[in-house]
């Protein structure tokens, strides 16, 4: 899945407020904005789970200075990202400065729970 120049605002879910990835996947998110995303459980923005032997890649690229990820939360673990997927590779490319703001978890891993 490739997503480019997109805004995700006001998303909610049980796991993975904006993205839920299970098993094998290749996901590229380029110049995206995710705002006001929350979960009742884990992974405010992204939840990745492996239920069978698989690999995958998630690449988040932000070549501009826009606010990429802001006001993201989970009630439990992984305010931004919850990763329970040993075969998954995650790349954050040029996600700097004001790109990540106001991320929190009710329990463990304010930004990442791996």
Please provide a written account of the structure:
- The protein is mainly beta and 114 residues long.
- It has one domain.
- The protein has strands at 2-4, 7-9, 12-15, 19-22, 25-30, 33-42, 46-49, 56-61, 69-74, 81-84, 88-93, 100-105, 112-113.
- The strands form three sheets. Strands 2, 3, 6, 9 and 12 form a five-stranded parallel beta sheet that branches.
- It is globular and about 35 Å long.
- The model has no long low-confidence stretch (mean pLDDT 83).
Number of extended strands = 13
Helix content percent band? under 10%
Q: Choose one word for the global shape.
A: globular
Radius of gyration: 13 Å
Task: Name the poorly predicted regions.
Answer: none
Termini separation (Å)?
A: 22 Å
User: Strand share of the residues?
Assistant: over 45%
Order of helices and strands: EEEEEEEEEEEEE
Provide a brief overview of the structure.
This protein is mostly beta strands and 114 residues long. The protein is built from no helices and 13 strands.
Topology readout:
Layout: E1 2-4, E2 7-9, E3 12-15, E4 19-22, E5 25-30, E6 33-42, E7 46-49, E8 56-61, E9 69-74, E10 81-84, E11 88-93, E12 100-105, E13 112-113
Features:
single chain, 114 residues, mainly beta, five-stranded parallel beta sheet, four-stranded parallel beta sheet, 13 strands, 56% strand, globular
């Amino acid at each position: 899945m490739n997503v480019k120049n997109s805004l995700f605002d006001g998303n909610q879910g049980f796991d993975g407020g904006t993205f839920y990835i299970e098993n094998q996947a290749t996901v590229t998110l380029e110049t995206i904005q995710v705002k006001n995303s929350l979960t009742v459980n884990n992974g405010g923005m992204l939840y990745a789970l492996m239920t069978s032997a698989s690999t995958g890649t998630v690449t988040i690229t932000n070549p501009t200075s826009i606010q990429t990820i802001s006001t993201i939360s989970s009630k439990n673990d992984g305010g931004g990202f919850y990763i329970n997927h040993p075969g998954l590779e995650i790349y954050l490319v040029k996600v700097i400065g004001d790109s990540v703001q106001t991320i929190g978890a009710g329990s463990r891993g304010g930004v990442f729970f791996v």
